[in-house]
């Protein structure tokens, strides 16, 4: 006999979720997401919306094609995420933001990107400016990056870092 969990929606209505469907949904919510490079403000906005809807932090690597440090850091960060770093805490989304794209507009100014490469996490569409990484020695340190990614994954879709602490414990 298979016991299926149920979700009570109201006193009179109970929704049965088939076991196979529940397993698939659980797996989907704990996957890493990789997106095509961002070249416009609209693309970044869409991805931050998507990650907020999935309650999953979006890791952005701000790069340029001509930046040799960026070319060394990008595969390291992507490799760690492909190794499923942070998967136990809900997973991560990852995208590279092409700062040398003609259509990027004022995104670097908006998010205070002053050097390349820069790693910046978004949680619930909020840039986590206090935890962004810009120092090359940290960006090339695999263990440091692993710990940073885990820390951002633990944050999940919860606020914190840039402005999420403003109300202290009042709202969660």
From TrEMBL:
Residues 54-139 form the Thioredoxin domain. CDD domains: TRX_family. InterPro entries: Thioredoxin-like_sf (IPR036249), Thioredoxin_domain (IPR013766). It comes from the Eukaryota. Signal peptide: none annotated. This is Thioredoxin domain-containing protein. It comes from Polyplosphaeria fusca.
């Amino acid at each position: 006999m298979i016991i299926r969990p149920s979700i009570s929606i109201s006193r009179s209505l109970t929704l049965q979720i088939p076991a196979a469907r529940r397993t698939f949904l659980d797996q989907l919510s704990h996957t890493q997401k990789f997106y095509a490079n961002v070249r416009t403000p609209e693309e970044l906005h869409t991805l931050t919306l998507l990650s907020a809807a999935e309650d999953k932090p979006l890791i952005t690597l701000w790069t340029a094609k001509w930046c040799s440090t960026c070319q060394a850091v990008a595969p390291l960060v992507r490799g760690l995420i492909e190794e499923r770093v942070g998967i136990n805490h809900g997973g991560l989304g990852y995208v590279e933001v092409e700062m040398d794209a003609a259509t990027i507009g004022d995104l670097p100014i908006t998010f205070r990107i002053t050097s390349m490469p820069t790693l910046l996490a978004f949680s619930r569409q909020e840039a986590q400016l206090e935890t962004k990484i810009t120092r090359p020695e940290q960006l090339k340190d695999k263990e440091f990056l692993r710990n940073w990614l885990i820390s951002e994954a633990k944050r999940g879709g919860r606020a914190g870092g840039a402005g999420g602490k403003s109300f202290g414990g009042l709202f969660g």
